[in-house]
Automatic annotation (TrEMBL):
Coiled coil: none annotated. This is Penicillin acylase family protein. GO terms for biological process: antibiotic biosynthetic process. Gene3D superfamilies: 1.10.1400.10. One of its GO terms (molecular function) is hydrolase activity. PANTHER family: ACYL-HOMOSERINE LACTONE ACYLASE QUIP, PEPTIDASE S45 PENICILLIN AMIDASE. It comes from uncultured Nocardioides sp.
Length: 221
């Protein structure tokens, strides 16, 4: 079923936030109640998805401020292309579920830090996840940047659009999405983050971007 397989690739349900959500529920409060009712869909129009990420981001920032991590807060010597992979907040974010599984990791009281994060998040205005999570294409000589489209998904979704703490840009994502039908090649579908042409002057340079960003696919030609 080509359509069914394509729908799986566009799944935006957050599957790795259980430890954080459980901690939040244990603390309670207005934000905790809202997140308890959240369907865990990282959709572009979801205010609760943005709220979840904001709490997560504030907790990551608090962990990064720990004195034991001071030596890791130096700027990376590498260029902007590689910087996200050497970012301390990005590394802490990836490790957050592991940290939450330990008692006082790095000597930190995570419940106290999380309580502060919840209180701060409760004072901020509601925004949608898409407004904080946008496509970021690497710059290419002689080409205008591809539009910074709103993106669904998250680091741990099937629609894996990588989150970078402190930034509104997604720096990772599926480099291709395809469903290949062995019974009927003409039924096969695909989508690329930009387009099928590498030449910035080509009309096919980023003509697949909108379809890809919406989780869709196009006929293989």
């Amino acid at each position: 079923d080509v359509a069914g397989a394509g729908a799986v690739l566009a799944d935006v349900r957050q599957t790795a936030g259980e430890s954080l959500l459980s901690r939040i529920a244990g603390i309670g409060g207005e934000v905790a109640d809202r997140l308890a009712a959240w369907d865990r869909e990282m959709s572009t129009d979801s205010v609760e998805a943005a709220l979840f990420v904001r709490v997560r981001e504030l907790l990551v920032e608090a962990v990064c401020a720990a004195p034991v991590l001071r030596a890791l807060r130096r700027p990376t010597p590498y260029d902007d292309l590689l910087a996200p992979w050497f970012s301390l907040p990005a590394r802490v974010a990836v490790s957050l579920e592991t940290l939450l599984g330990h008692n006082r990791p790095l000597g930190l009281d995570l419940d106290a830090l999380l309580r502060d994060a919840l209180e701060e998040a409760a004072t901020e205005g509601g925004v949608t996840w898409g407004s904080r999570h946008r496509f970021a294409a690497p710059p290419q000589r002689g080409a205008g940047h591809a539009p910074p489209l709103e993106l669904p998904g998250d680091t741990h979704c099937v629609f894996a659009t990588g989150w970078l703490p402190g930034s509104e840009q997604s720096v990772r994502g599926p480099v291709a999405r395809y469903v290949w039908c062995l019974a009927d090649r003409d039924a096969s579908r695909w989508a690329l983050p930009l387009g099928a042409a590498g030449d910035p002057a080509s009309p096919h340079h980023h003509d697949q971007q909108v379809t890809w960003a919406h989780g869709g696919t196009l006929p293989v030609t």
